[in-house]
Write a structure and sequence with these properties.
99 residues, mainly alpha
Length: 99
């Protein structure tokens, strides 16, 4: 299993520094995978990565949709109260149920 380190802002180029946080994590993941494969004496297979782009795009769309549904006040952040409501909905608890 490949372990991903936190994004080190000081090692990013000027163009990479403009990326969103999720794009930085993806870039870090690709680099970690490349390093992991090279340590095992294998080459990274970009064809496999490219073939997964649609799956990655679909997964990110689902995350975006879930975030938009949970972020009731449209602040761009999920507040604790919004998360609490979403978890109650996920686990089938009604609003009147006690904590």
């Amino acid at each position: 299993m490949v372990k991903f380190a936190a994004v080190n802002e000081s090692t990013l180029s000027q163009e990479e520094a403009k990326l969103s946080p999720i794009e930085k994590r993806i870039l870090t993941g690709i680099r970690a995978t490349k390093d992991h494969l090279e340590q095992k004496g294998e080459k990274i297979n970009f064809q496999r990565i490219v073939l997964r782009f649609q799956k990655i795009h679909d997964a990110l769309d689902k995350v975006r949709e879930a975030h938009e549904a949970i972020d009731v006040d449209k602040s761009g952040k999920i507040e604790l109260s919004e998360l609490h409501i979403a978890l109650k909905h996920l686990f089938g608890e009604s609003e009147g149920d006690e904590d």
